[in-house]
Amino acid sequence: MDILKSKTSNGLILVLNLGSSSLKFSIIHQISLERKYKGEVIGLDSREVVMVIHADENKYHFKKILASVDLKGCMQSIIEWMHGEIDSTEIVAIGYRVVQGGPKHTHPERISEKLLKDLESYVYLAPNHLPDEIKLIRTFRNSFIGIPHFACFDTYFHKDMPIHAKFYPLPDKYKEIGLMRYGFHGLSYESIFQQLLEEDVDIKNQKIIIAHLGSGSSMVAIGGGFGKDTTMGISPMGGLAMATRSGDLDPGAILFLFKQDQLSTDDLDELLSKESGLKAIAGSSDMREIIAKRKRYPKAAEALEIFCYQAKKQIGAYAAALGGINLLVFCGGIGENAALVREKICIDMGFIGITLDLRANVKADPIISVSNSKVTVRLMKTDEELMIAFHAQQLLSL
Prior knowledge:
2 domains, Nucleotidyltransferase, domain 5, globular, 398 residues, 5-stranded mixed β-sheet, single chain, 38% helix, alpha/beta, 8-stranded mixed β-sheet, 15 helices, 13 strands
């Protein structure tokens, strides 16, 4: 993906990326894939919701506290801003990050009513994400009529995972109704891998682990140029411990919760996705706050240790699965910004070839391993919105 081929553009692509507590959006030139505006609505469903938009090239900066704190009001605020700032005829396509499309939809595709019906039928696979994503799509399709809308699935990067990594050891009847390991954060991994490819096409021959660490955290093991395994499974709740999500649990723990507290499935979903992880241990889901409190608050120190221990253990497991490792990449909000987390994860990993340069790590240099480390450790910025725009660009050209 060479994003610098052209400096001209004959249209703009709007990209919408809905998360659990924010709605990111970008307006990107169709041909050059240069970003015109970058915005975010922060604090969805909190007491204060803020919309921030900026454009570096003309120093444009817009910030507004929104009166509405729900998704509907936030979407309307973005639409109103666009109508006031941009000629709507310039928008040639809208691309959306969609958490998953079940077993039938993995590749980026044009959104039709049939696709939306399929997504509605797969809500049970992602009940915390798909309903709001469908609402987002329907709202913007109704506001921007006559242009193509494209869905980019977070499962796309993981579509070629081998059978032994993709399927659970359960009866086939469950596989047939969509119970499998889909993997997520795929647009982030695709962004990092494309950047690596632009630097060196031989990267396809390397064994790579990418750690996307943020409020949602996961890892992927890449070999031969494709994803061979990833920590999240059927849902974004699985794998590593996260800000408010439990990560992997012994099935017996799930049964214990059902029996001991007589939880309903909705109660269990709420517990494991919104009341677990760092929040359950330390009372805060913010890694910055946890790091700041760790020396005087034992529970914060415990949360930090659990987070880093699980990540360290997973890197070791993936190094074994790949038969070695050449490159470890940290990305995501925590991965890029928390030097202490990276240090705790990488310390005592010399046995698999990882030797951290502590000074470079604190400075957040692009390469944070020592020069003679057998494994290169890097910090990279992921760009999911750019990947969505790239896929929309490719589909527009068909």
